[in-house]
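Running co-folding for ME8.
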Amino acid sequence: MTAQTPIYITTPLYYVNDELHLGHATTTVYADTLARFWRACGRPVLFLTGSDEHGQKIHKAASAAGTTPKDFADRIVQKFFELWDALDIQYDVFIRTTDDFHKRAVQALFTRLRDGGHIRKDRYNALYCVECETNYTEKDLLDGKCPIHKTAPQQVSEENYFFTLSSFTQPLLDHIAANPDCIVPEPRRNEIVGKLKEGLNDISVTRTTFDWGVPLPWEPSHVVWVWWDALVNYISGLGWPDSPALPTDAIQGRSRHAHEVAGNAFAHWWPSAVHLVGKDILWHHTVVWWSQLLGAGEKPPRQVFAHGWWQVEGDKMSKTLGNVIKPQEVAAKYGRDALRYHILREGPAKGDADWRQAAFVTRFNADLANGLGNLLNRSLNMLGKYFDGKVPPETAFDQPALEKARLSLIDRVNGLYPRLVAAITNFDLDAACEAVIELVRETNAFVNNAAPFKLAKDPARAKDLQASMHALCQVDFVLCHALRAFLPDAANRIATQLAVPLDGVLADRLRWNALGAGHQTGKAEPLFMRLEAEGNTDA
Ligand code: ME8
């Protein structure tokens, strides 16, 4: 990977049967953070998200609401836009599976698979969970119920089209062996390899009992199974199979950036595709999706990253329990950076996680209010008092212990960029944030030791005062750039207070002396107010 290698980042297309919750916001915040980080590194990034609108689940929800599936989807998808706007999610392409260009791509894929001999008609007898939109065998069930939703599956029997999934067992195992990081983290890859080694069964991929889906081109009484339809979005969103450009014209108003690429958009972005998903849909995004691609003569994406699930205060998050965390409510109450930070620090990137309100408050106060906010505020206030807000020229401390502390800060600042790149390459968002917060902690300790407020009272210590304030200016500048991906609102507010533009590539910005002497900073404003344990601010 070089700074110029493109990266194509996707979230799942969420179902429009209900409003989105913390779980959906988590995958999307992860994707947005990766996208912002790599953009700040100067890498070409394409970030796609969207909505999954076909299938029985949506049909059922629309009937319950007394409306048509399309009207229902139109209504719910507006809520998606509102949520992503409220959280300032900077996606490039928003795709709806009811978009015409997408439906044509699904039909083209199906036709290719038929022509390649991968499709056959058969009798389908299955146990189908509508909530998962997936069928199960008796041995998958727990007490006769879906292992995820704990509801009894439907017994389905119909004649429909099957895909020869079984013939892809070995090609998938070979692909994974040749590309060890194509499924991350490692335990997730092992899980998929384990299941593949048990062998695969052919799967039914059309339905005739309802019509809310993409019709088969040669037999429109069949609609494509919703998963088969939805997964194709990752390539239809790039213009596959025959459009050289992204379909942004077709989705004007929903998509943010029209990326100009030389040549074919699919050829440009697909080799560097990274799908972010929850562990519940890893099977679909590897075994099912990759077989579709291989069968159609295309390559699997470069990587699938699967995160775990949130619980809430030790319980499953569910409507029945009434403990569903609504991201817009958290953002409205505490700020979207606070929500984002908690997701990045405490979220299920590596394994399952538990949303605990007490931990939310503790971390917010320690890292953001007492840590980052306090550092910024005191350093800018002191700079205003002692240097009229102007960055002083660099100088060393006379006192050896303080000079040692300053040299250590310089090392930490200059080592931050490679640390962030390594953490983000590994999808370790927690480690990336920790690297920034360690700089905050070390600098706060430096302020306590150097005590510029005391130095300012002693004219003989003028050089040490200058050394400390120059160092603080460098750290503040580096922090606002380092936080661009993780706390975008705070990064902007710090940049305003420092009176610097939030631009340029991180490799240039995360360096000691990237902020020149003589620069005039702006007015210090509090960044974060401490929270009381109940969640009230003490402002
Ligand atoms: O599966 N914790 O959509 P979906 C963490 N339409 N993440 C969670 C979560 C939780 N408790 N609950 C949900 C679908 N998620 C299909 C996808 S893609 C071609 C089709 C997140 O609306 C997680 O990312 O059910 C999970 O994979 C996704 O929401 C499922 O969203």
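Result summary
The longest helix spans residues 357-387.
The two ends are 46 Å apart (CA to CA).
Job closed.
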